[in-house]
C-alpha cells in the first residue's frame, strides 16, 4: 500500500480524482460517458489548468488508474482486516487482550482514508500540489498502522520468555526503530517538496556538505526546515547517514552479547537492510529520481522499518520459544 501510494505521488496521479466517495468510489468508470464526466471534473482542478492543460483523455486515464488503485487497495485492506476480525470475534477465537488493539488499528485505517482525502483536498483549491505536511502525516499514519499490525503478528508467532538481552540493549533497539521512522518521515518531506530533484550528487551538495542556500531568508525557521528544498534534502541525508551509523554501531555492540541465534539473525538482517536502503537512496538521488528506483527506495524504507521492528521484538521476546498455535 505504501509503495502504491509512492508511485501515485511520483507519477503525479494523486489529484486525478477530485471527489471522495468512500462507497460509490469503488466502482470504476464503466463506459465512455463515465470517463468524460470524470475528465470534465478533473479539468476544473488546478493541476489541469496550471500544469496539464490540453491533456488527452487517454493520458488522463493513466493517472486516474494509479489513484483509483491506491484508493481501492485501501478499501480492500479494510475488508481483509474487518471480515476475519468479526469472524474470530463472533466464534470466540479472539483473545481478550487482542480485541482493543485490533479494533483501534481498524479505526486508524478508517482515519487514514479520511486523512488521505484531507491531503488530496489541499491540492484541489489554488495550487496543483498537495501539502507536504499532510502528505507526511498520511505516510506517518500508514507506517504506524503497519508497525502496530506487525508487532501484534510477531507477538502471536514468537511467544516466550524475555530474551537474554540487557535493558540498555532493548532501549537501543527501540531507539533504532524511532530513528528509522524519523528518517522515513524526512523522506516524506523530500517527496512532498520534490527536493530529490536538486543537488543530485553525493555526499556533496554544491560546493560543500551543506548547501549554500540551506537558509532561505524569506521563510521562518520551521518553514525553512520543512519547505526549503535544500534544507529538506539535507535533513533527510543527515538522518539517513545517522541511521546507517547507528545500526552498524548497534550491530557491532549488541551482536557479540546475544546468545539467541534468532536474535543474531535479526540484527544481521537489520544491518543488511540499512546498507541496502542507503545504496538505493543514493542511487535514486544520483539518477534524478527515476520512478522504478524511487518506488524501490520507498519499498526499502518499509523493509528497513520491518527489520528494525523484527530486531526490537527479537530482543524483547525469545525468538527460539515454541510457537503456540492459537
Q: How many individual β-strands?
A: 0
User: What separation lies between the terminal Cα atoms?
Assistant: 28 Å
Shape: flat
| Share of β-strand residues | under 5%
**How much is the radius of gyration in Å?**
22 Å
User: How many helices in DSSP terms?
Assistant: 11
- Helix % is 55-70%
Low-confidence stretches: 318-326
Verbal overview:
This protein has helices spanning about 1-10, 30-40, 45-50, 55-90, 95-120, 130-155, 165-195, 220-225, 230-255, 260-285, 290-315. It is mainly α and about 325 residues long. Helix 7 packs antiparallel against helix 9. The two termini are about 30 Å apart.
List the keywords.
68% helix, 0% strand, 11 helices, mainly alpha, 326 residues
Fold blueprint:
Layout (H helix, E strand, L loop, with lengths): L1 H9 L21 H11 L3 H5 L6 H34 L5 H26 L10 H26 L9 H27 L27 H7 L1 H26 L6 H26 L4 H26 L10
Helix pairs in contact: 1-4, 1-11, 4-5, 5-6, 6-7, 6-11, 7-9, 7-11, 8-9, 9-10, 10-11
Q: What's the gist of this structure?
A:
By secondary structure, the protein is mainly α. The chain has 11 helices and no strands.
Amino acid at each position: 500500500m505504501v509503495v502504491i501510494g509512492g508511485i501515485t505521488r511520483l507519477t503525479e496521479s494523486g489529484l486525478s480524482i477530485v471527489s471522495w466517495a468512500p462507497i460509490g468510489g469503488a466502482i470504476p468508470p464503466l463506459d465512455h460517458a463515465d470517463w468524460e464526466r470524470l475528465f470534465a471534473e478533473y479539468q476544473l482542478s488546478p493541476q489541469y489548468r496550471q500544469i496539464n492543460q490540453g491533456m488527452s483523455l487517454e493520458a488522463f486515464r493513466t493517472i486516474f488508474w494509479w489513484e483509483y488503485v491506491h484508493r481501492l487497495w485501501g478499501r480492500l485492506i479494510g475488508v481483509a482486516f474487518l471480515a476475519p476480525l468479526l469472524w474470530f470475534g463472533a466464534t470466540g477465537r479472539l483473545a481478550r487482550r487482542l480485541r482493543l488493539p485490533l479494533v483501534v488499528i481498524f479505526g486508524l485505517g478508517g482515519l487514514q482514508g479520511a486523512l488521505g482525502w484531507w491531503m488530496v483536498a489541499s491540492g484541489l483549491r489554488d495550487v496543483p500540489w498537495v501539502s507536504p505536511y499532510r502528505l507526511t502525516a498520511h505516510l506517518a499514519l500508514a507506517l504506524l498502522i503497519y508497525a502496530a499490525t506487525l508487532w501484534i503478528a510477531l507477538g502471536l508467532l514468537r511467544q516466550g520468555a524475555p530474551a537474554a538481552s540487557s535493558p540498555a540493549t532493548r532501549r537501543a533497539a527501540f531507539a533504532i526503530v524511532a530513528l528509522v521512522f524519523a528518517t522515513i518521515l524526512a523522506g516524506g518531506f523530500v517527496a512532498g517538496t520534490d527536493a530529490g530533484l536538486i543537488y543530485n550528487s553525493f555526499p556533496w551538495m554544491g560546493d560543500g556538505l551543506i548547501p549554500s542556500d540551506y537558509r532561505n531568508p524569506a521563510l521562518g525557521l520551521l518553514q525553512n526546515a520543512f519547505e526549503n528544498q535544500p534544507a529538506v534534502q539535507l535533513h533527510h541525508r543527515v538522518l539517513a547517514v545517522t541511521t546507517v551509523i547507528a545500526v552498524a554501531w548497534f550491530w557491532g555492540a549488541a551482536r557479540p552479547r546475544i546468545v539467541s541465534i534468532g536474535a543474531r539473525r535479526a540484527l544481521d538482517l537489520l544491518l543488511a537492510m540499512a546498507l541496502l536502503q542507503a545504496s538505493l537512496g543514493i542511487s535514486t538521488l544520483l539518477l534524478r529520481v527515476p520512478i522504478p528506483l524511487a518506488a524501490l527506495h520507498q519499498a526499502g524504507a518499509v523493509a528497513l522499518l520491518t527489520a528494525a521492528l523484527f530486531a526490537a521484538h527479537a530482543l524483547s521476546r525469545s525468538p527460539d520459544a515454541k510457537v503456540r498455535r492459537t
